Amino acid sequence: MKLSLLIALACFLFIGTADAQTDSLHLPKRFYIYGDLEFGGGGATYGSYTQVSLVVQKRNNYVRLKASENARPLFSWNDEEPMMTDLSLILGKSYTVFTCHNLKLGSGVAFIKKEKRAPLEETYKKRAVGLSLELKYCYMIDWSAGITCSLNSNLNKVDSYSVFAVGVAFGFLREKKNGLKH
């Protein structure tokens, strides 16, 4: 039931807000390409979270290809700790306020692999398809750099998780100030 509700909410995000905003920082005929790198805590089960993504944006719609990893704690000597990786394709909306504050809401499909090593046993791997959700804030320092913080969730049958991460965005985030049409 909860998964159905989240899928319905994700569909509403794309259909219900199709023309909700005209973004003056992004010209209608231009694509904006940028990447980001984020680090965070992996929750109770995992020690660290790392995320790398590539984004293509046109106006206030974006597509993100994201790779992330929930790994054992950095200074853990226990090889039996689980590790989870995922590759996600996320579609979403981007909202910019006061030329430097940007909020992104997105969801998409994720391919998950969970791996656990045991010293005297075989390594087991589980794979699944899940729903990836993100809420991301970016403070755009300039047209080419920003500081990000995000809440990422992944709902799947192997091991669902939610994490908070902080990082940097770099690339073509918005128009240069002298290139904006007023």
TrEMBL record:
Keywords: Signal. Residues 1-20 form the signal peptide. It comes from the Bacteria. This is Outer membrane protein beta-barrel domain-containing protein. The lineage of its organism: Bacteria, Pseudomonadati, Bacteroidota, Sphingobacteriia, Sphingobacteriales.
